[in-house]
Amino acid sequence: MVTTDNARQLSSCDDARAMLARAREEGVETVWDRLAAQQPQCGFCSLGVSCRNCSMGPCRVDPFGEGPQKGVCGADADIIVARNLGRTIAAGAAAHSDHGRDILEVFAELAKGDTSGYELRDETKLRSLAEEWGIDPDGRPLHEVARDLADSMLEEYGTAKGHLSFADRLPERRSRLWKELGITPRGIDREAVEMLHRTHMGVDNDYVNTLLHGLRTSLADGWGGSMIATELSDVMFGTPQPNVSKVNLGALRPECVNIALHGHNPMLSDVIMQAAEDPELIALAKDKGAEGINLVGLCCTGNELQMRKGIPMAGNHLMQELVLLTGALDAMVVDYQCIMPAVTDVAKCFHTEVISTADKARFAGATHISFDPHRGYAIGKDIVRRGIDAYGNRNPERVHIPGGTVEMMAGFSVEAILEALGGTPGPLVDAIKAGKIRGAVAIVGCNNPKIQQDLGHVTLARRLIENDILVLVTGCSAIANGKAGLMMPAAAELAGPGLKEVCEALGIPPVLHMGSCVDNTRILTLAAALAKYLGTDIDQLPLAGAAPEWYSEKAVSIGTYVVASGIYTVLGVQPAIFGSPNVVKLLAEDLDEVVGAKFAVEPDPERAAVLIRRHIETKREGLGLPFVDPEQLATAEAA
Ligand code: SF4
Ligand code: SF4
Fold this sequence. Notes:
By secondary structure, the chain is α/β, with parallel strands linked by helices. The protein is built from 25 helices and 16 strands. Helix 13 (299-309) links the parallel strand 5 and strand 6. Helix 10 (207-237) packs across helix 22. The longest helix has 36 residues, at 77-112. It binds iron/sulfur cluster (2 copies). One iron/sulfur cluster binds next to loops.
């Protein structure tokens, strides 16, 4: 059970600590209690050496070499670990890509003029995407261009043409490398389906071959499904531009109807936002005694809204139960991904109505209102009306909203970054060449209750900016760094002198919010553009990735496509591969020879920062730029 004493170790976020104390007082169970109840967790599963892929099993391999070394079918630790990892990648890639398909299907309906509440808001982006996909946009009505683009993108899910269109964004060398390795993704669905086939008993029994296909599967996510999700969301909801918003549970307003939008997909949340501005509903809220309707975001649906509309953020992954404990949330609207089934249990302790909206993501104890883009606006209004009704049941004596809010800047799309740089990557490249910025690191991914909440994200970001490394963030990492105050221009004070000078000149923070988890594709696009500008490949650049507190299958897919794209990546949570020394060696050493990048695992963010700084200086040396000797740097840090 969570206690006041250990609440400090569970989270570095003051809001979370306050709500954990309330959970203890009221006997409400949270994710940390359930993690404690699961101890000790299965050692075989943690090492990845258990298998239940068929009914001759379940099987497990003894990592100490004393018990069985093979499953009933004869699979050894290498095969079992590779199969499990392959399936994890496929699940993550499928989740992102299916999200992309959902956006695409609404886009296709919008192109036909069959939706309510949606518009083609970024005409420039639509026309430039059409050109990129070989569709002539000139002189043609926008809806016609959108229809042709939708048809082409829908084909990519099962494309017969042999490679994904967005892979044309790659520098030539990376493109050639993927072809030589046979990992150019062919179709978005195809690679995930093939991974499920390969990992069926008796198909791919060569762990290297399985994991090469793991790279291909993840690339179908990063350069396929996720990229479609990002680009079309920009077309429909607007390409993000820098805006100042706020974060924390203080974003809830006791005087208003509070509705939280949780999950990943901006389709419904965008129409809910429109509905919350409807005069009829505002009047209804006032009739009930509220001063207005207040929307807040959670997780990546929150990121989508904050990036484009500046909607305040209530919190990241581990805040989803704690926001309910404020007693001030009237409705939690959920779409899909990362929504704990437990939210309906916590909501029952208060007056909050949980409203599920995706037919593929139902929750026991939630009211289900099925999303239909043809009636988007009407459904949005219906949901807001339910929130207003629930407000009538709120007990003001049970409302406790801790603390205030912290300002954070969001909205750094690639377009916005290039605009801030004057239209080309040139000034950024010049700052890197001059050593004012040593390099750039993407810190991405989740919270995980096994790690003190936000500590990994924030410590790593602080150490990197102090050392003149620009930090790009997405997902729950963006929210963690926002809470820590690192995402306003004033945080340039915390950066090293070179990065500080660049941030002050451009009026930007040293930690840039690039969006939701599917928006990691913005980072891929930026990395590819930088490599092309310099006439080199992505793996030559002083870049790195990190996922200090990851938990989800999607994060595994992200990490894999980032490495396969040529970017060294440090994980803060150990993946379930350590039962196979061969697989560990492949991912943490040999992959470097194959794709020019590899994984490292380092739970301590201080040490992770050193690993990343060494890597960046090594890349600078490779490019002939002024560098600090990586070995000296490590020795100095150790001292
Ligand atoms: S596939 Fe092989 S290792 Fe897995 S459960 Fe079946 S028999 Fe056991
Ligand atoms: S970062 Fe992880 S936990 Fe957070 S919303 Fe994305 S996938 Fe979910």
